[in-house]
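Hey forum,

I'm writing up a methods section and want to include a predicted complex as supplementary material. The small molecule is magnesium ion. I've pasted the protein sequence and the SMILES. Can someone with a working setup run it? I'll credit the forum in the acknowledgements.
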Amino acid sequence: MGKVYDALQRAEEQRARRIGESGSAAAGAQLVAAEQAGTARKRRFWARLRPRRPEPHREDAGTLNKRRIAILQPQSFVTEQFRSLRARLETLAPRSSLRTICVTSASPGEGKTTAAVNLALVMSMSVGQRILLVDCDLRMPRIHESLGLRVDAGLAEVLRGDAQLDEAIVGAEGSALSVLPVRQLPENPAELLGSVRMRELVEKLSTDYDRVIFDAPPILGLPDAKVVSDLCAGVLFVIRAHATPQEEVAAALEVIGRERLLGMVLNEADANPSRYGYDG
Ligand SMILES: Nc1ncnc2c1ncn2[C@@H]1O[C@H](COP(=O)(O)OP(=O)(O)O)[C@@H](O)[C@H]1O
Ligand SMILES: [Mg+2]
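Reply by user p_vandermeer:
Happy to help. C-alpha cells for the complex are below, copy them as they are.
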C-alpha cells in the first residue's frame, strides 16, 4: 500500500510542477479549465447512469477498437507493461487463491476497461491458461465494442436464467481469451450483481477458469462495483495519472477496503500517448 501512496504522491507532485512551470497566468487558466472540466465530467457521470441499450454489432474489422492494444501491438511498450502487471500478480499470490480479480476505479473514463481487456489478453497468452473476461458494467458495457464481439446473450440474461452460460461466453478473435459480455441492460443492475445467482456464477467461473477478470463500473456513487469487488479475491484499482483527484482515490479505497487491494494501475502515466504507440 505504501507504493500506492508513493505513486499518488509522485503524480500529484508532477501535476503541481506542471502547473508551476507554466507560469502564474497560464496556471490560472489551467485551474479554471480544470474546474470547468470537473463540472462537465460530473454531468457526463450522471448522464452515463441512464440505462442505454448497447450497440453490439456496430464494430467491424475496419473500426477495430484501440483498447485491445495487446492484440494490435503485441510488442509495444504498453503490452509489456501489462505483461509486467501479469507477472506481479502471479508472484503476489498462488494461482488458486487469486482466481477472481475485479478491475475498478473511482470514476468513469479512467481506463478500467482498457486495463481489464489488456490484462486479460496478456494472461490468455500464457500457454495452457484458461482466462475469462467478464463485463460487469451493466450500465455502460464496453467489452463487446473493445473486442469487436458478436453478442447474442450476456451477463444479465445468464443471471436471470434467460440464457445458458455457454450460450453467452464467446472467444475473442485473435486470442485464446474467453469473454462473458453484456447485451441487455437491466433496470436493476445492483440487485442482479448482488443476487445469489451472481455469487453462484462467480463460484462456478472460478472453478472453470484459471483466472477471471471482472471489468467493473466505477466504485464511487454506485453500489455495483462494491458488490462485484466483494465477490472477488482481490481488486486492481485504476488511476488516471494527472486526472483522478487524490481525494477521490482515498474515498474509493475506503469503499473497497484497503486490505482487498492487489495493486493499482497508473494509467497514462506518460501524458504523451504517441510514445506508447497509442493513438486511441
Ligand atoms: N492510456 C491511455 N491513453 C489514451 N487513451 C486511453 C488510455 N486509457 C484509456 N484511454 C481511452 O479513454 C477512454 C476511456 O477508457 P476506458 O478504458 O473505457 O475507461 P473506463 O472503463 O474507466 O470508463 C477510451 O476511449 C479509451 O480508449
Ligand atoms: Mg469501462
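Some notes you might quote in the supplement: The pocket of magnesium ion (ligand 2) is lined by residues 112-113, 137, 142, 215 (CB under 6 Å). The longest helix spans residues 24-47.
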